[in-house]
Specification:
about 30% helix; globular; about 170 residues; alpha+beta; 4-stranded antiparallel β-sheet; 6-stranded antiparallel β-sheet
Length: about 170
């Protein structure tokens, strides 16, 4: 059989092998779109789960979201909300920083905590050289945690800073 006849089969095999490799996790920056006018975003998925850390900002507000790929029952959500929910983030050279959640809710099959952050926090996070450990804590217990990459972090945070004016 000539090589040309084998190329489609070889190409299909190569694509199948590439598709079976794990996805390389990295940070991404998204400029505002039609649905999110004036909202800039930077996000990454945890390397070991579908949990997501996301920053969203405009010229007035900067928010950090921890979005867990799991949901809880309504009664568990009520307990979590009453249990002083906190987003924990480990920063290089600083240690674990607890951030009190402004809001905890569920949407589209995800448990989401959100809190406001300062430009100084975002700048400090952008310096990370090691994977960023983050999690959700309530009632003194870790509810969810993940480890997030540093690949693309600096560029994503610089895009966020430029877009949001800090």
């Amino acid at each position: 059989m000539p090589i040309r006849a084998r190329l489609p089969a070889l190409a299909s095999l190569l694509l199948l092998l590439l598709a079976s490799e794990p996805v390389f996790a990295e940070w991404h920056y998204l400029a505002p779109g039609a649905g999110d006018q004036n909202v800039h975003r930077a996000f990454a998925f945890a390397g070991d789960s579908d949990d997501r850390l996301e920053f969203a900002c405009n010229s007035k507000r900067r928010d950090l979201f921890y979005s867990s790929a799991t949901t809880v029952s309504d009664s568990e959500l009520a307990k979590l909300t009453k249990g002083n929910p906190t987003i924990l983030i480990r920063l290089d050279g600083v240690g674990v920083v607890p951030l009190d959640a402004d809001k905890a809710y569920q949407e589209s099959g995800r448990l989401i905590l959100v809190t406001g952050v300062t430009p100084a926090f975002i700048t400090e996070l952008s310096k990370a050289q090691n994977p960023v450990a983050a999690g959700i804590q309530a009632n003194g217990k870790i509810v969810q945690q993940g480890e997030f990459p540093v690949d693309g972090l600096l560029a994503a945070m610089q895009g966020l800073a430029a877009g949001c004016g800090f």
